[in-house]
Specification:
Length: 221
C-alpha cells in the first residue's frame, strides 16, 4: 500500500470512529451584575403582567427599531397594538426577558443590552442544519410528543436541527406544545419552551443614567 493510500485509509477510519461534533450554546446573562437593569426589568415584567400600556409606551425609544417597517413609536404601536389586552406583546416580551442578556456595541457611542443571548452568541461555525438552541440545563428528548413517552436521551444547551416548531401533544386534552428535532440521540420531541430559534423576537435596551429605554424589538436576521 502506498503512502497516499495509507493516509487516506487512516482518515476514513478516524472519521468513522470519531463522533459528529456537538455544538453547545451556554447561557449568558451579562445584565445580571447591573443593579439598575435588574430593577428596571422587574418593573417592566410587572407592567407586562398588568398590561400597562402607559408604562410600556413610556419606555419605548422615539427611534425604536421595529420588526419591520420604519423605526419609531408610531410603527411600534401599529405593529403591537398595546391598547389591546389580547396583543401578543404581553406574551412575547416576557419570554425573552426571562432569558439571559448580552451587551452589544451598536456603534461607538451606543452600548445596548439585548435579550435573549441566543441570537447574539450563535456560533458562526454551528453549521447550516443547526436551527434551534436548547435553553434548558436538562430536558428529555421524547420518542413521541407526550410527557409519558419513551425517553431517547437528555439535552443540555445543545444546538439542534428543528424539523417542526409546533407539534400538538398526543393527549388531545393537553395544551403542551412540542418541537420535533434531530439530535445526537435521534429524532424526537422536546417541550417548546425548552428550545428557541435565534430568529425569534429579541429586544435591546439602553441606559441613560438611572433610566432605561427600549431601543429595539426585532425578529429575524
Amino acid at each position: 500500500m502506498g503512502l497516499r493510500a495509507f493516509c487516506l485509509t487512516l482518515l476514513v477510519l478516524f472519521a468513522a470512529a470519531s463522533p459528529a461534533q456537538e455544538f453547545k450554546l451556554l447561557p449568558v446573562d451579562e445584565g445580571a451584575n447591573d443593579a439598575s437593569w435588574l430593577r428596571f426589568r422587574a418593573r417592566l415584567l410587572d407592567a407586562l403582567v398588568r398590561r400597562d400600556q402607559q408604562f410600556i409606551l413610556g419606555i419605548v425609544d422615539p427611534k425604536i427599531r421595529n420588526m419591520s417597517g420604519p423605526a419609531g413609536i408610531a410603527e411600534f404601536k401599529k405593529q403591537w397594538e398595546p391598547q389591546l389586552a389580547t396583543s401578543s406583546l404581553w406574551v412575547e416580551l416576557p419570554k425573552l426577558l426571562f432569558l439571559g442578556s448580552v451587551f452589544v456595541k451598536r456603534d461607538k457611542n451606543v452600548n445596548e443590552l439585548c435579550a435573549p443571548y441566543v441570537y447574539y452568541r450563535w456560533p458562526e461555525d454551528a453549521g447550516a442544519n443547526a436551527s434551534g438552541a436548547i435553553i434548558a440545563k436538562e430536558t428529555s428528548l421524547k420518542a413521541q410528543p407526550a410527557g409519558n413517552a419513551a425517553t431517547l436521551g437528555s439535552l443540555s444547551y445543545d444546538l439542534v436541527d428543528v424539523l417542526d416548531w409546533e407539534v400538538a401533544d398526543d393527549n388531545k386534552e393537553s395544551t403542551q406544545k412540542w418541537v420535533k428535532l434531530i439530535a445526537k440521540a435521534g429524532e424526537g420531541y422536546v417541550p417548546e419552551e425548552h428550545v428557541r430559534s435565534p430568529l425569534e423576537y429579541r429586544a435591546c435596551f439602553v441606559s441613560s443614567g438611572a433610566r432605561w429605554r427600549m431601543t429595539g424589538f426585532e425578529v429575524g436576521e
